[in-house]
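F.,

This is the one I mentioned.
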């Protein structure tokens, strides 16, 4: 039970810190321009087949920021309990890939559903 509390505490601390860092980095991104596309925004748009003329860029940006913070903090909270370096790298890679793929696809589908309404 103690490990669960430690993991939740690390998750909350890392999520909060990464969220403030992402807010600071993303403060200049106000509009969706084709010349200044970011990889995370592009991936979210591609996963949901979003039409940026119908979708709000602000919503897409916030969703991407929250997903990135969640993935970072979730991966760190899990990797705290792995001791071996090789296992830590393997588990970290698998957790990152699965969480990025699943969360971006789910969010892309939800945004596409909202776009149709």
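My design for it:
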């Amino acid at each position: 039970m103690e490990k669960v509390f430690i993991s939740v505490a690390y998750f909350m601390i890392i999520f909060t810190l990464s969220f403030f860092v992402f807010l600071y980095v993303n403060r200049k991104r106000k509009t969706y321009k084709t010349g200044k596309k970011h990889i995370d925004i592009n991936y979210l748009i591609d996963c949901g087949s979003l039409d940026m003329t119908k979708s709000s860029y602000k919503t897409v940006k916030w969703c991407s920021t929250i997903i990135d913070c969640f993935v970072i903090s979730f991966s760190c909270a899990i990797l705290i309990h792995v001791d071996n370096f090789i296992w830590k790298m393997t588990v970290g890679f698998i957790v990152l890939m699965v969480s990025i793929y699943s969360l971006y696809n789910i969010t892309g589908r939800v945004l596409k559903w909202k776009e149709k309404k």
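The first helix runs from residue 2 to 25.

Talk soon.
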